[in-house]
Design a protein that fits this description.
The protein is mainly α. It has 13 helices and two strands, in the order H-E-E-H-H-H-H-H-H-H-H-H-H-H-H. The chain has one domain.
Length: 337
């Protein structure tokens, strides 16, 4: 495998997503798989079809299959991603309870870890590696699911994260990881053509869960510490936006006596939108730019700077996120909490 093939995978996934997404949209409209406005949290002017995640994952899968020979890493990622996609697809039909949804994710996480596709975490004791890896995968998977609250948001953040992962993996010669990262980023970029505000199709739970699990797995598969002792912290910066939003809504909903999966206006991108006068495009662009800053900090810490500089940059980024979220907590929301 060569860097040229990795880049080809990105381009092919992008083109395939441009082809598959309109087909998925037509199928969703025909079978009534749509997100209907409710006037509270869902304020789109008309029903918007789901199944965007199916188009993204299909483009990602076909691009990898046409360009690369599958090894255990890619097979594990694709199997676990497919299981998560199916769980989300059933949830998009509205027939899964939260407990069943978590159980389905647990099966996917177990399959991924059992496949040997994920490199064990070397920085922690042997007995804690699997539990911490499972906790991380659950966290990132559900973080992207929770983040999918505005047009283009989850797909844009996922595309930036995938690009950052791909750059790091290319720099360390990990071509299978780079191929998976950039193919996913390419598929998400192609999907964004139809998902930017006003969105013509949504990722749905199928897409956000599958994207989250795949990125979470790649984050612990890439050898972040090969060049910098601080490199293992880079995924926290690259995925800082979805992880920070999950912590944010969990704290606010716990204070309100609500379960963390209960839909509400607690998300910091929604509060940012309110602070910007309700401008969806501006708010989403700002959050994606914030993700880009975290991605640059993560990539720089891993492959460019000394570990001391990396720690300062990562610490500054984390402090900036905390300050931003603290300020946004004072924004009065129109939607009832």
């Amino acid at each position: 495998m060569s860097p040229g093939l990795v880049v080809l995978g990105f381009v092919l996934a992008f083109v395939l997503a441009l082809y598959f997404t309109p087909i998925a949209r037509q199928a969703a409209l025909r079978f009534g798989i749509v997100d209907r406005p409710d006037g509270v949290l869902k304020r789109q002017s008309e029903p918007v079809p789901y199944l965007g995640g199916l188009a993204v994952f299909l483009a990602y899968l076909v691009a990898l299959g046409l360009v690369f020979a599958f090894n255990s890493l890619l097979l594990g990622l694709l199997l676990a991603g497919t299981l998560t996609l199916l769980v989300g697809l059933v949830d998009d039909f509205g027939v899964l309870t939260p407990a069943a949804k978590i159980a389905g994710q647990a099966v996917a996480v177990f399959v991924l870890l059992r496949s040997g596709a994920v490199i064990e975490l070397a920085e922690v004791p042997q007995g804690l590696r699997w539990p911490l890896a499972a906790l991380w995968l659950f966290a990132v998977c559900n973080a992207f699911n929770l983040l999918d609250v505005m047009d283009g948001l989850a797909a844009g953040v996922g595309a930036v994260a995938g690009l950052a992962f791909g750059i790091v993996a290319l720099s360390t010669g990990e071509y299978p990881e780079a191929a998976a990262s950039l193919a996913l980023a390419g598929a998400l970029c192609g999907f964004l053509v139809f998902n930017v505000h006003p969105a013509r199709i949504y990722l749905g739970d199928a897409g956000s869960l599958a994207v989250g699990l795949t990125l979470g797995a790649l984050a612990i598969a890439i050898r972040w510490s090969d060049r910098s002792p601080a490199g293992f912290l880079a995924p926290l910066a690259i995925l800082g936006v979805p992880l920070a939003d999950t912590a944010y809504v969990s704290i606010l909903r716990a204070r309100a006596g609500k379960p963390f999966w209960h839909g509400s206006s607690d998300h910091f991108p929604l509060r940012l939108r309110a602070a910007m006068g309700g401008n969806v495009g501006k708010a989403v662009s700002t959050v994606i730019a914030l993700t880009g800053v975290g991605a640059a900090a993560g990539v720089g810490t891993t492959v460019l700077w000394s570990w001391q500089i990396g720690l300062w940059v990562l610490g500054g980024y984390a402090l900036g996120l905390v300050v931003l979220l603290s300020l946004l907590a004072h924004i009065r929301m129109e939607v009832p909490e």
